[in-house]
Design brief:
The chain is α/β, with parallel strands linked by helices. It has helices at 51-54, 129-141, 158-169, 182-190, 205-212, 226-235, 264-268, 285-297, 314-323, and strands at residues 4-10, 23-29, 37-46, 75-82, 92-95, 102-106, 111-112, 149-152, 174-179, 196-199, 217-222, 236-244, 272-275, 305-309, 329-333. Helix 9 links the parallel strand 14 and strand 15. Bound molecules: NADP nicotinamide-adenine-dinucleotide phosphate. The site of NADP nicotinamide-adenine-dinucleotide phosphate has 30 residues, from helix 2, helix 3 and helix 9.
Length: 334
């Protein structure tokens, strides 16, 4: 029986914050399965900041989204039809064909989720790409060691909230986070156990950082770029290490971007600054999953999700992610 399904296409390249007109919700019929394929009903879809730069027509580490085609991204779903003898109907899987209600794909492109100890949606966050980003970025890229003081920006988001908690669990002397509201600042300290937190919208980032970290900090995990990177360059300790993870403050920018004017601080302070892309670090997946599962099972990690319900709300949810409507991981629930 032919099934109608809906998916979201990129209709126009956004200028600034994405508008409804930049997208089209398209209904189409699902094709019959070919041998080795599965049909997945998507239950949870991910919206992630990196999707915004992918909507621009620029060369990057990943090709831009194509106009007139369905967007893609992380998704968790249930197999409802299978032409692969090894994947039974009812299996829960994660895969990369998000932004749509159903996905037809070869079984080698799905990852079976057989762990029922946590909600399936956790595999889009703490046990998925953002969690692994926090893990690799902190422990490998920033070369965190016990006793380090750590500052993380975007701290109330999916990656940042985990960076701060991983650092505390691994023996950080102090963890400081920045976020965009008084509620998030309180949340960071009360729920995620940060030692100090600051609201960047209050201004004077350098002054606020100096007050939050009187003895400075050794690691900066940068999710934001721009003013945050400039303030971290001013306040980080000599020989500090910076993991350059993202620059979310620039993703909707329409003009040219200026690099921090105080880059020479990196020279005088003998800093190590290293960018990274999590997908280059697949070899760390087993250790990441083992460690984070252990922390979750021991109740040592606080995990938070913000849900948006329905494909019709996905564009609004994506905008909300880029403007701070989320605490923890933003997830679209179908
Ligand atoms: N390198 C990699 O492989 C990799 C992998 C995953 C993610 N990332 C990067 O990691 C960062 C965080 O991603 P995520 O998935 O965890 O997203 P997220 O932090 O859950 O969501 C994005 C957050 O960005 C903040 N934000 C928006 N505009 C801002 C601005 N102008 N200044 C400061 N903060 C702003 C908002 O929080 P506020 O309310 O606090 O403003 C919003 O909640 C992004 O830069 C992303 O691109 C990199």
């Amino acid at each position: 029986m032919a099934i109608d399904t809906r998916e979201i296409h990129l209709a126009r390249r956004p200028h600034g914050l994405p508008q409804d007109e930049d997208f089209a919700v398209v209904t189409r019929q699902l094709p019959d399965l070919e041998p080795g394929q599965v049909l997945v009903r998507n239950d949870y879809l991910s919206v992630d900041p990196y999707m915004r730069p992918r909507m621009n027509d620029v060369k990057s580490y990943i090709p831009p989204f194509e106009l007139g085609k369905a967007l893609d991204g992380g998704a968790i779903g249930t197999v409802i039809e299978s032409a692969d003898e090894y994947i039974a109907v009812g299996t829960v899987v994660s895969h990369g064909l998000g932004w749509r209600e159903h996905a037809v794909l070869r079984s080698k492109w799905v990852r079976v989720i057989d762990d029922e100890s946590v909600p399936a949606s956790y595999h889009l966050g703490v046990l998925g790409m953002p969690g692994m980003t926090a893990f690799v970025g902190l422990f490998d890229i920033a070369a965190f060691k016990p006793g380090d003081a750590v500052f993380v920006s975007g701290a109330a988001g999916a990656v940042g909230g985990l960076v701060g908690q991983f650092a505390k669990l691994a023996g950080a002397s102090r963890v400081i986070g920045s976020a965009g509201s008084a509620e998030k600042v309180a949340f960071l300290q009360e729920e995620f156990g940060f030692d100090a937190a600051l609201n960047y919208r209050d201004g004077d980032l350098v002054g606020q950082l100096a007050a939050a970290a009187p003895e400075g900090f050794d690691v900066y995990f940068d999710n934001v770029g721009g003013d945050h990177l400039a303030a971290a360059l001013e306040t980080i300790n000599d020989h500090g290490r910076m993991a350059l993870c993202g620059t979310v403050s620039s993703y909707n920018a329409t003009g040219s971007q200026t690099v921090p004017g105080n880059m020479f601080r990196a020279v005088g302070k003998r800093l190590t600054m290293r960018g990274f892309i999590v997908s280059d670090h697949e070899q760390r997946r087993a250790e990441f999953e083992q460690q984070v599962t252990a922390w979750l099972q021991a109740g040592e990690l606080t995990y938070r999700e913000t849900f948006i319900d329905g494909l019709d709300q996905m564009i609004e949810g994506f905008r909300g992610l880029l403007t701070g409507a989320n605490t923890g991981k933003m997830v679209v629930r179908l």
